[in-house]
Design brief:
CATH superfamily of the largest domain: Medium-chain alcohol dehydrogenases, catalytic domain
Largest sheet: 7 strands, mixed
Radius of gyration: 20 Å
Structural class: alpha/beta
Number of strands: 18
Shape: globular
Number of domains: 2
Distance between the termini: 19 Å
CATH topology of the largest domain: Quinone Oxidoreductase, Chain A, domain 1
Oligomer: single chain
Number of helices: 11
Helix content: 25-40%
CATH class of the largest domain: Alpha Beta
C-alpha cells in the first residue's frame, strides 16, 4: 500500500513529505494507522547531526493510533485496538528485560537503522529501503511495527493527548521518579524545561519534592513549569545555585536532572555543583556522542560521593509505566492536555520543528489526516 510520510534524507536537510510504499506486516508485526505523533527533540538531533541514523529514515518515534492488521504469531494485539507506541521495543527475554531493565532491551540496538527485529524494512521509496525512527516512523500516516513496540489502551482515551506517553512523559517523569528516586521533602533542580523537563517537574512534584527548581532562559517555559508543579524558577544556572543554597541552608539540592535540548559540559558542571554530598545528577538530555560533555573535578566526586546517572526512557519499563501513566491521567494527577502548545498537519512538520527550536512550544503534535 501507499502512505504519506516525512522522510529525512540527510544531515542538515528538512523533512521531505512524500509518498512511500509500505509492505504488509510479517510475523510478530502489525499495521497501524497513526492518529497523532509528537514532535520530540530527538528527531531534531537526527536532522541537526547530533545523532546520525541510517538515511533515509521516516521521522517520528512518539505515536498513538489504531491497529488495522496483524501478522502471524501476534498475540498482544488485534485489529481495532487503540495503542500507544513505546519508542523502545521490549522483547521480554534478553538479559536486560529479564532483570527488570527493559528500557535497555537489546532490540534497541537498531532503532537508528529503523529496521524491524527481523533485520528488514517495511518502508520503500522507488525500491530503496527506508527506515522508521525507533522502528516506528510515526511521521507516516501508516506504518508496520513490531508488537513489542505497542501497548494497548482503552478505546475512549484521546489518542491525540495520550500520544505523549510514548516518549516525553515517561522519559521526564521517570527521570525524576526512577532515575533520581525523588523522595518526599527533596529539593530537585531541573535544567531545561522542554517536553522532557516539564514532565520531570510533574514527576518530582507528584513524588513529594518540597522544592522543585526549574531552570530555563525562556520566560514562557518558566511560567509553564510553575503551572506543572515547580515551586521556583530561575533564568540562569547561577541564579539557581544561589536560590538552592538559600533554600537548603547551604546543603545543596538532593538531585539535579539535566533535560536541556543539547547537553553541554557547562550545564553538567552547574548541576554537579548544585547538588549536595551524596547527591545525584541525572543526565537525560542528549548531545553529539562523539564529543565529551562531562568534565568534572574528580576529587569532589570522590570526597563528596556525588553521582552521575544516565537515564533512558526514564529508567522505567514501558509496558508497566505507560499503563500506569494512563491511569494517572485519568485520575487528573498527570497533566497531558496542557502540555500541547500547538498542533500541526504532516505537511507542517518543518514548521513544527522550527517552532521547537524557537522555544515556542512545550510540545507540538502532528495530527494525521483522517484522525
Amino acid at each position: 500500500m501507499k502512505t504519506r510520510a516525512a522522510v529525512l534524507r540527510g544531515t542538515g536537510q528538512d523533512f521531505d513529505v512524500t509518498e512511500l510504499e509500505l509492505d504488509p506486516p510479517k510475523t510478530g508485526e502489525a499495521l497501524i494507522r497513526f492518529v497523532a505523533a509528537g514532535l520530540c527533540h530527538s528527531d531534531e538531533h537526527l536532522r541537526h547531526g547530533d545523532i546520525v541514523p541510517r538515511f533515509p529514515i521516516v521521522g517520528g518515534h512518539e505515536g498513538a493510533g489504531i491497529i488495522e492488521e496483524v501478522g502471524p504469531g501476534v498475540t498482544r494485539l488485534k485489529p481495532g485496538d487503540h495503542v500507544i507506541c513505546s519508542f523502545l521495543p521490549v522483547c521480554g527475554h534478553c538479559r536486560w528485560c529479564s532483570t527488570g531493565q527493559s528500557n535497555l532491551c537489546d532490540l534497541g540496538a537498531t532503532i537508528l537503522d529503523g529496521m524491524l527485529p527481523d533485520g528488514t524494512y517495511r518502508f520503500h521509496d522507488n525500491g530503496a529501503d527506508v527506515g522508521g525512527m525507533c522502528m516506528l516512523g510515526t511521521f507516516s500516516g501508516r506504518a508496520v511495527i513490531s508488537e513489542n513496540s505497542a501497548i494497548k489502551v482503552d478505546d475512549d482515551l484521546p489518542l491525540d493527548k495520550v500520544v505523549l506517553i510514548g516518549c516525553a512523559v515517561p522519559t521526564g517523569f521517570g527521570s525524576a521518579v526512577h532515575a533520581a528516586a525523588t523522595e518526599p521533602g527533596d529539593t530537585i533542580a531541573i535544567y531545561g524545561i522542554g517536553g522532557i523537563g516539564i514532565n520531570a517537574v510533574q514527576g518530582a512534584a507528584l513524588a513529594g519534592a518540597r522544592n522543585v527548581v526549574a531552570i530555563d532562559p525562556l520566560a514562557n517555559k518558566r511560567d509553564a513549569a510553575e503551572q506543572f508543579g515547580a515551586t521556583h524558577s530561575c533564568e540562569t544556572a547561577e541564579q539557581a545555585q544561589a536560590l538552592i543554597t538559600e533554600l537548603t541552608r547551604g546543603v545543596g539540592a538532593d538531585k539535579a536532572i539535566v533535560t536541556v535540548g543539547v547537553v553541554t559540559s557547562e550545564v553538567i558542571t552547574s548541576a554537579f555543583h548544585a547538588i549536595r554530598k551524596g547527591g545525584t545528577v541525572v543526565v537525560t538530555g542528549l548531545s553529539d556522542p562523539t564529543k565529551n560533555t562531562i568534565e568534572l573535578p574528580g576529587s569532589i566526586l570522590t570526597l563528596f560521593e556525588k553521582r552521575i546517572q544516565g537515564s533512558l526512557f526514564g529508567s522505567g519499563d514501558p509496558f508497566h509505566d505507560i499503563p500506569r501513566m494512563v491511569e494517572l491521567y485519568r485520575s487528573g494527577d498527570l497533566k497531558l492536555d496542557e502540555l500541547i502548545t500547538t498542533t500541526y498537519t504532516l505537511d507542517q512538520v518543518n514548521e513544527g520543528y522550527q517552532d521547537l527550536l524557537d522555544g515556542k512550544n512545550i510540545r507540538g503534535v502532528i495530527l494525521h489526516a483522517g484522525s
